Amino acid sequence: MEFNSLTYGIFLPIVFAVYWVLPHKFRWSLLLIASYYFYMSWNANYLVLIVFTTFVSYLAALIIEKSDKKGIRKTALVVNIIVSLGVLFFFKYFQFFDNSLVLLLNKFAIQLHPITLNILLPVGISFYTFQTLSYSIDVYKGTCQAEHHFGKYAAFISFFPQLVAGPIERTQNLLPQITEERKFDYEQATYGLKLMAWGFFKKLVIADNVAKIVDNIYNSLNDYSGFSLVLATILFTFQIYCDFSGYSDIAIGTAKTLGIDLMTNFKSPYFSTSIKEFWSRWHISLSTWFRDYVYIPLGGNRCGKIRKNLNLIITFLVSGLWHGANWTYIFWGGVHGVAQVIEKNLFPKSKKNKSKILWWLKVLVVFVFCCFTWIFFRANTLADAGYVLTHMFSGIGNFTAYIKNGIIDINITNFDLLKIFAAVLILSVFDFLSLRFDVINLISKNKCFIRYSFYFVILIIIIFFRATEASTFVYFQF
Q1: Are 32 and 158 a contacting pair, CB within 8 Å?
Q2: Nearest-CA neighbor of 161 among 254, 29, 34?
Q3: Rounded-to-integer distance, Cα 320 and Cα 367, Å
Q4: Which end of the chain has fewer CB atoms within 10 angstroms, the N or the C?
């Protein structure tokens, strides 16, 4: 059941109505039932995995909290980490590492055949695994208490808005909201609906319209060269952002209609003036997770310069691997890690410069860097990424023909191109204003005629300019 489906359009209003009618003491059970139903709509067998992972982390946390012996507490934590990551490894990485090992051994004339496992990657497994891990680690560190009620804990782990693609919530934020009594707040609920509408705009009007162009080119790279590759890369830069941040907006908006606040996951990342700032604005729940549970435990900034730089690169390599079982993701993560090391050592943060020109120049440089690195994220193989990098500027000597032929090659009408450009312009204005204001609140404070005119226009755009073919959210594969 996807957010952009008719089924969800029926599912959510039912959950919303029943949730607010039920007495508080029964609401956690409704959330658990609704979340498990939501998850089982993809594949009923997935339920076994999430229940197993939930139970292991629940039990480990109870042992950690009740035991006075450090050895037992540490053993419980380690067992939970091994079991949880073991399940994740088997379903997501076993085939990748097996194939990589076979290829490596074949290089040394050791012939082996890869083990082929016909298993599907359960949606959301990376997200809920990290949520259970952070919970058990936080209980071990004493930053939160273990939840003794298994049902309420299970509802926290499986909360359906953020279950399959985040945000990856922290125990201290979400778990109390599952268990505490909440009263219906009209302002919060309507804000959630507006945020959902903005998320649907990003997903249906931008991401889905762009996806077909990007997929056609990146899945048949040898048929393209020149500006068409540049255009596809720029379009993917907006596709991945609108697809994922659109999901986050819908998830956060959905939770708000139920009186629950999830953490912000994106803050206008393409208006960043450094790579470090980009990662403080992009997929915030994941970047802060890796900071707290990988980078800091490795030593963080508390060690020598070389070790500190190595910690940063290792963290980003792991982050790349988290995104998928492919060397392209690992390389993508590594490039971002190295870039941050270079940025930190060669371009230390200086006093705030008020020059608007310099600010825009930095934003442009970071945006171009992100565009280039997204090539590795989107390419099916490292060889494909190499092809894009070596062919994207072919024919640029004749600049007019370079641009014209590139647009012709992507096989898109002028109207469709204008439609995408207009939608991206609206997105850019919204994100730019979001640097200083809560745009949704700003619009909501306007006179009735103005704000409802705006809502009507956005609704019309979504209805009439959405992609004819809806696509799955990109981050479901992670």
Answers
A1: yes
A2: 254
A3: 19
A4: N
Helix axis angle for 94-107 and 70-92, nearest 10°, is 70
- Nearest Cα residue to 172 out of 262, 50, 266: 262
> pLDDT tens string for the chain (478 positions)?
788 888 999 999 999 999 999 999 999 999 999 999 999 998 888 899 999 999 999 999 999 999 888 899 999 999 999 999 999 988 887 777 777 777 777 777 777 666 766 677 788 899 999 999 999 999 999 999 999 999 999 999 999 999 988 799 999 999 999 989 889 999 999 999 999 999 999 999 999 999 999 999 999 999 999 899 999 999 999 999 999 999 999 999 999 999 999 999 999 999 999 999 999 999 999 999 999 999 999 988 888 888 999 999 999 999 999 888 889 999 999 999 999 999 988 877 766 667 889 999 999 999 999 999 999 999 999 999 999 999 999 989 899 998 988 888 888 888 888 889 999 999 999 999 999 998 988 888 888 888 888 888 888 888 888 877 767 777 666 6
Token pair listed for 352:
């705030």
323 noted as active-site residue: yes
**Token pair for 459:** 């609704």
CB burial readout 342-362, b (16+ within 10 A) else e: ebbeeeeeeeeeeeeeeeeeb
Hey, what's the torsion of the CAs at 423, 425, 426, 428, to 10 degrees? 120
148, 149, 283, 323: the catalytic one is 323
Is the distance from CB of 64 to CB of 140 less than 8 angstroms? Answer: yes
